[in-house]
Amino acid sequence: MDFLVADVPDPTDFPAETVAPGLRTLDGSFRCDICGELYDAPVTISCGHCFCSACIRTSLSNKQECPSCRKAANEVHIRPNPVLESAISAWTTARPFVLQLVRRDVEVRERGAEGNDKGNARKRKRASEWTSSPDPASDNAAGPSGQRPSALQSPSKSRRTAAGRQGVIDLAESDAEDEPVASTSSKDAFVCCPMCSKRVLMKNINSHIDRNCQDPPPPASAAMTWSKIMNKGKNGQQKGKNKKKASDSDDEHPLPLSTYTTLKDRQLKDMLAEHDLPLTGDRANWEQRHQKWVMLFNANLDRSPSNRKTKAELRKELKKWEEERSRKKKAVITDVKGYQVEHKAEFAKLVEAARSSRQSKPPEASKSSSPANLPDQSSPPPSSLIEMSNDIVVDSEGEGGHEKSPSGP
Amino acid sequence: MSSSRGSGSATALRRLMTEYKQLTAGGSPDGMFTAGPISESDFFTWEALICGPKDTPFDLTGEWRIVEGRRSFRRQTDFHSVPRTKPSDYPLSPFKMKFDPPIFHPNIYPDGTVCISILHTPGDDPTMYEQASERWSPVQSVEKVILSVISMLAEPNLESGANIDCCKLYRDNKAEYERIVRESIKEQLGL
């Protein structure tokens, strides 16, 4: 996998402050300081700092303090932040669109700068002229490429009043400018959408863009609209019902954290069975599984009811997490040649050992040498990896035990 | 080795990718360092190039010119060989950092490992001198750690020395310390 070209959305997608003031900061302030992603189930703790619920829960299980300011913090301090959550979901929707606009704006500016600086200056001035006294004649002269006028001569009232959206409209026009725009200045005229270049009624263009170029929903009957409105409040409940179907119990209360060291194997098994969790692996696995489950479950409760996942989804998430952990213990060799070169000395040693053993036991050699050789070749580095992870497992258990005990009920 | 270690936890990987992207897009303050993964297939081993801070023996400004035009040290930040922690635990646990080749500095072990409080988890305290407030926390980042290391190069912390001989020398005979540092760096840079 090529990580270097993989696209990770982050604040630097937006241009610097001088080009697009505030956008980079805005995107950055919507991100969790721990994972660097847009907040997922944002929560605040007692000091006021905000994190993803899952991130801060994991962090607090490591060390009971705020990662930002290091004030003492505890799981009981966690409070969901639904306002921020809705802001994030709105931003998630708006982000690609804003990015597109910004890129276009930059392009337009660059094109303008290439054209002539004078025209560029006039263009910037246009914003004020536009609202106070739109004078097509002066604007005609200002157009950097002479294509501007066609768009400018078709001012509609709605556009003129939308002073705050001028940037948007400018851009829309600049890209639609080579299209045969019907400059009849009537709202029934068709324009080409700057994003999907579909022909859309002028009066619908704004809502069209707002919907991300999707077709408008079919006109709903009055009855349908009313039933929609009436059902809106029940939405959460419906989800709740679905959840009920998928799971055994509809519990809205966070699960308590447990101190696993005092539990007997049977009790731990019962706890896992209570949530329909698998009983595979050893005790260490059970503890980790249960701990992670409690974390996932509680973090899920911090989402607003409509965004919550079902227990089945959470179980899938848990399974994925466990698979990821176990996968790490196995070494995957992709660059075979590089691997061979790197471990040449080890291979040589193994070959040497195999040869000497063959000399000592000639009758068995023909059978055992080749099958024994193959697994041996790949084993040394993985074994070292496993050793490392084994250490880690033991270690994390120990730490988990220490950290847990003060927080236990 | 790198290829077998490409799979870390998804969280750690995403966070490192974000950090890398921000470092490449924003650059480091004053262009003091560059950092990034060593190979495209392994995001968990990074390499950083640091310019020696000005007015320290690590800064060779005005004395030597280097062919590539950079006064820099090679340094490896290895997210893997972290003792006692899972590499995939990043950013919950810190990574480990090593100067390769090692440099002569009071807070750098003779094998090149950097001893700095920001890279220690609040749990362990090898020197018993550090305050918990200086330790690692998940909101720290590669960039912040490297900046701390740069300031550490300029101002060694003698209270928690990693290289005791170097500490002594720094305290008793700073001129000699600076001479040794200059010599070793010239040697490392092949001058």
Topology:
The complex is a heterodimer of chains A (409) and B (191).
Chain A lengths: L22 H7 L12 E3 L5 E3 H10 L16 E2 L1 H34 L1 H16 L3 H7 L5 H5 L4 H5 L4 H11 L13 E3 L6 E3 L3 H6 L11 H11 L2 H12 L18 H10 L8 H19 L9 H19 L6 H7 L1 H17 L1 H17 L1 H28 L2
Antiparallel strand pairs in A: 1-2, 1-3, 4-5
Helix pairs in contact in A: 2-13, 3-8, 12-13, 13-14, 16-17
Chain B lengths: L9 H17 L6 E7 L2 E9 L22 E6 L17 E4 L42 H13 L9 H9 L1 H15 L3
Antiparallel strand pairs in B: 1-2, 2-3, 3-4
Helix pairs in contact in B: 3-4
GO molecular function (chain B): ATP binding; transferase activity
Keywords (chain B): ATP-binding, Nucleotide-binding, Transferase, Ubl conjugation pathway
Protein name (chain B): UBC core domain-containing protein
- Please give the radius of gyration of chain A in angstroms: 31 Å
Count of strand segments of chain B? 4
Biggest sheet record of chain B: 4 strands, antiparallel
CATH architecture of chain B: Roll
Spatially, the strands of the biggest sheet of chain B line up as 1-2-3-4
Number of helices of chain A: 18
Radius of gyration of chain B: 17 Å
**Biggest interface pair, residues each?**
A-B, 44 and 40 residues
Biased composition (Basic and acidic residues) (chain A): 110-120, 245-254, 399-409
Pathway (chain A): Protein modification; protein ubiquitination
Protein name (chain A): Postreplication repair E3 ubiquitin-protein ligase RAD18
GO molecular function (chain A): single-stranded DNA binding; ubiquitin protein ligase activity; zinc ion binding
